[in-house]
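User: Hello! I'm new to structural biology and keep hearing that structure can be predicted from sequence alone. Could you demonstrate with Exopolysaccharide biosynthesis operon protein EpsL? Please show me the input and the output so I can see what each looks like.

Assistant: Of course. The first part below is the input, the amino acid sequence of Exopolysaccharide biosynthesis operon protein EpsL. The second part is the output, the predicted structure written as tokens.
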Amino acid sequence: MPLKTAPQSRTLITGIGIRGRPLRALVVGLLALTATDALALFGRDLLMEPLPFRQQRVFEGRELFYNDESFLHRASFAMPDPLTASPVAPDHMAGTGGSARSTELFLDIGVQATRAFTDRLDFQYRFRRTEDLDGRFDRNLVGFGLHPHRHWTLRFMADVTGDKSRTDLQPEISWEHPDGHSARATLVLTDAMFNEKQDINAYREAPVTWFFAGKWQLSSNHQLRGYLDVTPDTALEARDRNRLFRNESARAGIAWDWETDDGIRWRWLVEGKAMDREETPLDGGPLDTMSRRFWRSRVELTLPGDNDSHWRVGTQALSLQETGTFIGNNQQLSDQQEAMVFAGISRKLSAEWQFRPTLYISATEGESKRASNSTPSSEDGVNDKLTLPFEWHPRGAKGASLTLNPTLHLAKGDFGGGNLQVRIPL
């Protein structure tokens, strides 16, 4: 049963249907970006981890309301070097939290710890608390790893809850080469025992997510990275709501990192997501559809300075287009484009302290539609933010760090929110 294509406004990708087409829409969009300016959403690097189907977000929608400052806040609060930007992440404990509004915190927290039983068998724990375009979520995985060869790891993880029907199973295989190349393939079986462990609702087509990530180390100072994350058509019969929900999505991203012998570093990235969703009454009725098309890219240049300092400049842009109707209890559809520039300096104050102020300026154009108001509201605006992060490294640059990051709105002359970041290698 093909879905209807929702009407589009300010659409960059047109003429693309919904059922079976998010991956095609994503590829077309990413190819189109190679001639555009750079852009950004949350942070300085790729989000190289699977984002599986989440049943509650289909029912409830995104609990966050985006405005013309939302992505500026998240870019200024993000970790400087995300550990999730590698196909095979090292063990770590890291997190950032910042005030995005008077009633809203932006949180991005990750923990990974691995302990060996033998040379070939280990136990691993992962915790993730963050957000994406569907809202906030947690993942809490435990599992075992088998090392049949020194370059290969087979791992079986599970996101286990007290409700057996909501347990996710996640087998994966990873490869790491001494020259720096690495790759990972992951299969996420969301709510793997849902139909067997409860009898209220049922999946007609079970949610499955395929995730692939890789890094190609071209030389000691030159690398390419990329990922693909695909969740094919999922059909959920929600009898307690008298609704049939369908969902499918695809994400992809690539990044190019390069450093010269003089210490000049370049990073360019582009990533995007396509998602289509529908809702229809089980006893017959109108079909409601919603689509999301998002892309972002980013260019950042780091230049060495004098006296233990370096400069950082870059440009970012993004496009988020949500069209159609309100699925479930979703309260907002956002259509906005944003361009942002930033410049900053990182200066070593002492053996333990570093100061890296950065000025961000963004220009946003768009509108949002809320379920509570039939008239769209404008999200046009120009905003600035000055971040003043002080980093403390009590055990040196490779040890644990604590960052206090107060921010200011220069044009408004007021406080822009505080941000705390913690990083502990394990």
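User: So the tokens describe the shape?

Assistant: Right, they're a compact way of writing down the 3D structure. Reading them back into a model, for example: Confidence is low (pLDDT under 50) at residues 1-20, 27-41.
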